Amino acid sequence: MPKRILQGRVTSDKNEQTITVLVERRFKHPLLHKTVRSSKKYRAHDALNQFKVGDTVRIVECAPISKTKRWTVLTDQSAAALTTAAADQA
C-alpha cells in the first residue's frame, strides 16, 4: 500500500529533530456547496533540523518514531527515491 504524502507549512521547530506541520485541505460542503477549509497539525521527524518556521514541506507517513511522531519530512533526495520506486512498480 502506498504511503500518504502531505504538504503543509512549518508552524514550530522548537523541539530537537521535530517540526510541527499545519496541513490545510479544502473541500466542498455537501449541503451548502461552499468551499470549506479544514486544517490539522502533524508532528514530523526532521533529522537534520534544516526546516524553519514558515517553510513549506512535504511529509510522508512512517512507522511510529515516538508517542506523537508518525511522519517524516520528505527531502529532495528521498522524494526522488520515492518517484523512482513508484515508476519501477508501474
UniProtKB/TrEMBL annotation:
<dbReference type="InterPro" id="IPR000266">
    <property type="entry name" value="Ribosomal_uS17"/>
</dbReference>
<keyword id="KW-0687">Ribonucleoprotein</keyword>
<protein>
    <recommendedName>
        <fullName>Small ribosomal subunit protein uS17</fullName>
    </recommendedName>
</protein>
<keyword id="KW-0689">Ribosomal protein</keyword>
<dbReference type="GO" id="GO:0022627">
    <property type="term" value="C:cytosolic small ribosomal subunit"/>
</dbReference>
<comment type="subunit">
    <text>Part of the 30S ribosomal subunit.</text>
</comment>
<keyword id="KW-0694">RNA-binding</keyword>
<dbReference type="InterPro" id="IPR019984">
    <property type="entry name" value="Ribosomal_uS17_bact/chlr"/>
</dbReference>
<keyword id="KW-0699">rRNA-binding</keyword>
<dbReference type="GO" id="GO:0006412">
    <property type="term" value="P:translation"/>
</dbReference>
<dbReference type="GO" id="GO:0019843">
    <property type="term" value="F:rRNA binding"/>
</dbReference>
<comment type="similarity">
    <text>Belongs to the universal ribosomal protein uS17 family.</text>
</comment>
<comment type="function">
    <text>One of the primary rRNA binding proteins, it binds specifically to the 5'-end of 16S ribosomal RNA.</text>
</comment>
<dbReference type="Pfam" id="PF00366">
    <property type="entry name" value="Ribosomal_S17"/>
</dbReference>
<dbReference type="GO" id="GO:0003735">
    <property type="term" value="F:structural constituent of ribosome"/>
</dbReference>
<dbReference type="InterPro" id="IPR012340">
    <property type="entry name" value="NA-bd_OB-fold"/>
</dbReference>
